[in-house]
Backbone:
């Protein structure tokens, strides 16, 4: 038996690489928020990770242009790369706020939100590693959505407390934005999960 | 004559159910904003409606996995369910702000914005009930877009007034966010209308 | 030789028209921000340009309904029209903030951000004029993404400075929103570029 169309797993490899950057970046962010020192250097490191993920996204695009037969629809490969990249953009954006806004101490919920992003990133890593296992992918996406709900609840609770207790409006603005950027990263992970769902639905 | 492919209207039924939750939720929000009492209980009720809509979205997904021939493209069914769900997410988010931010009195425009969401929800209900009537769906989506413009105008006017008159920056922040969340719900209804347009364009 | 399927360039013509409005609108915004006088009249003029672009978007939709064979996928034509329209919506939104929020002097970065939108608009104009030249379109979209990164860097720098120096929280809120709306316009141009990428990838 000849395998006339050897399965090309180059895209899966790049997606695995991107998920790896996402895990690395979100772990660095969580650690930075828990041990709040050495900010400048760690945010610079986060920028480097984010940049490597950008380059991987670009490689997906270049490869799409060179590949005649793709493992799934071209536009979905494009959408998946973009959406994974978006998550890390918001992870970096959260880190960047720490230095740009000169935040003296992050709100208590911030490292917990980062920990949720780490868990979502690990689910995304599992999902992109087994794109052809429909049910496994859907189990990951259900968990990613559950984590997004959890993050949303934590963020809303902390924001309520901030509005009750913080009397400095400029400090309130900074804290509010940091929490919202972290929560948006979990939304973007959910968007990536939705792209994955779309892909497995099409393959069904 | 045999009907070899009996038309399966299970998806249309779930979309009708979702539009029903959207009408119920937005009417409850409007009523809460007009008769500003009993907040905790009514926001809890809104949460329940939002949760039922989440479950319906999930049922769409499960059914997609069990259905071989769908009335329109799988990814569009998915996108329509997600976008209807998004509208109610923002309706709930507006309600949630009332309690979390401990808003003493909503700005005058708030119930009027909620009333616009109710009208958009009714248009969405009409549209999903007659997906095979191209022109009817487009008439609904044109009206939904017009309502979004109207909401945008009302929101901008109220925000301008708030920035002119409100001297407490923290109260300003709360009011601004409430108005923006309400306006975003009308944007999400427009997104759902855009998905409906895409579907009827493909069927054309 | 007969040309049985004469190539219909009506869509390309409307996209070119839309890109023209986008250039006109963003140039007017830049000029308004640099020579900060006569706001009411210029924002009114911006509204007119934005309205003409809305009408062009609507014409795309009507034409889609009357056309049997389209030069590329119906849903992509729809998405491209919507995303071009979105850019001008944010350009107008930035102008509108100037009058609604009664901004006395825009932050120094504002005209530079508008200038970046002008450059992105010119790239979008080039791209829609040569949709069948795969590599040319991709070169435009790469430049649009680079410009978005540049805008993001400028915006973050100015926001950091505002948080360090501006002591009036309500003025800070106004400046922050103006900068963010301008930056979002550059994001929307990137979204339009992503639609263009999707289209050329499908044609590949």
Residues:
């Amino acid at each position: 038996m000849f395998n006339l169309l050897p399965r090309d797993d180059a895209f899966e490899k790049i997606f695995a690489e991107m998920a790896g950057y996402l895990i690395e970046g979100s772990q660095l962010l969580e650690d930075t928020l828990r041990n709040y020192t050495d900010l400048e250097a760690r945010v610079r490191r986060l920028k480097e990770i984010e940049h490597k993920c950008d380059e991987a996204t670009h490689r997906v695009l270049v490869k799409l242009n060179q590949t005649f037969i793709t493992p799934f629809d071209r536009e979905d490969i494009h959408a998946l790369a973009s959406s994974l990249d978006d998550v890390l953009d918001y992870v970096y954006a959260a880190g960047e706020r720490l230095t740009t806004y000169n935040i003296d101490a992050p709100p208590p919920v911030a490292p917990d939100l980062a920990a949720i992003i780490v868990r979502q990133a690990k689910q995304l890593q599992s999902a992109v590693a087994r794109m052809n296992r429909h049910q496994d992918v859907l189990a990951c996406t259900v968990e990613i959505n559950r984590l997004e709900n959890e993050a949303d609840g934590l963020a809303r609770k902390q924001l309520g407390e901030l509005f009750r207790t913080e009397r400095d409006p400029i400090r309130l603005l900074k804290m509010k934005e940091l929490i919202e950027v972290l929560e948006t990263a979990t939304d973007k992970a959910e968007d990536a999960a939705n792209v994955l769902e779309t892909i497995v639905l099409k393959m069904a």
Summary: Residues 3 and 135 of chain C are 26 Å apart (CA to CA). The interface with chain B takes residues 61, 64-65, 74-75, 78, 82, 96, 100-102, 169-170, 173-174 of chain C (CB under 8 Å). Chain C has six helices and no strands. Residues 10-203 of chain C form a domain with the Methane Monooxygenase Hydroxylase; Chain G, domain 1 fold (CATH 1.20.58.220).
